């Protein structure tokens, strides 16, 4: 597989074409951003840690029957993935109240949510990723009704598997965001799963082990990501 020209560069990852139009190279950079790109820093080793973390999780989910875009780990910071048409929607599941839910509804941070809460957001930094529902997605043509149901179903299935994976390693999966895309007409899990896009707390101490350390300037960001990786058995 030969890596070709850069197709797209996002806030933390870049996408490169390959000599096969069905596949692209996902390149994980050290850039770390928050607040719709307002806070940006370079964190040493982050590209490597997230690339390997994501490869581990994507393979774990594929083993559980979740269709993912992941094909192969290429090197420390790059993976080969399916060339998908991304659905511009973020799927969020919350097991514990935190972040924007707390700000929006005034509920207590750390409140257990039973059943878990599901939310859709439009992927649009300029509009600050507004919350949307199934009607907006269908009406504005961001995805078809059957694909919306599929994304929701898969996001909940991921919750079952990952809640257990992290719980067995002494952590609480507070919430997470997934993105999906279409490849040859079918929905696949895309983007990445790493501590950049979820909240993970130590089950005993409730220490934050995710990007909230960066958002809140708590320090030890990559050290926390590495601790999570080590606890679930990711080889860095
Ligand atoms: O992170 P923030 O408080 O602004 O938003 P949230 O709605 O509480 O985020 C819910 C979960 O989705 C958290 O784990 C975020 O890290 C993740 N998320 C993300 O990865 N990317 C976004 N653009 C928004 C949320």
UniProtKB/TrEMBL annotation:
Lineage: Bacteria, Pseudomonadati, Pseudomonadota, Gammaproteobacteria, Thiotrichales
PANTHER family noted in UniProt: MULTIFUNCTIONAL PROTEIN ADE2, SI:DKEY-6E2.2
Gene from which this protein is expressed: purC
Enzyme class: ligase
Segments passing through the bilayer: none
Keywords in alphabetical order: ATP-binding, Ligase, Nucleotide-binding, Purine biosynthesis
Similarity remark: Belongs to the SAICAR synthetase family.
Organism: Methylophaga aminisulfidivorans MP
PROSITE patterns xrefs: SAICAR_SYNTHETASE_1 (PS01057), SAICAR_SYNTHETASE_2 (PS01058)
Alphabetized CDD domains for the sequence: SAICAR_synt_PurC
Gene Ontology molecular functions: ATP binding; phosphoribosylaminoimidazolesuccinocarboxamide synthase activity
Pathway: Purine metabolism; IMP biosynthesis via de novo pathway; 5-amino-1-(5-phospho-D-ribosyl)imidazole-4-carboxamide from 5-amino-1-(5-phospho-D-ribosyl)imidazole-4-carboxylate: step 1/2
GO cellular component: cytosol
UniProt xrefs under InterPro entries: SAICAR_synt/ADE2_N, SAICAR_synt_PurC, SAICAR_synth, SAICAR_synthetase, SAICAR_synthetase_CS
One Pfam family linked to the record: SAICAR_synt
Protein name: Phosphoribosylaminoimidazole-succinocarboxamide synthase
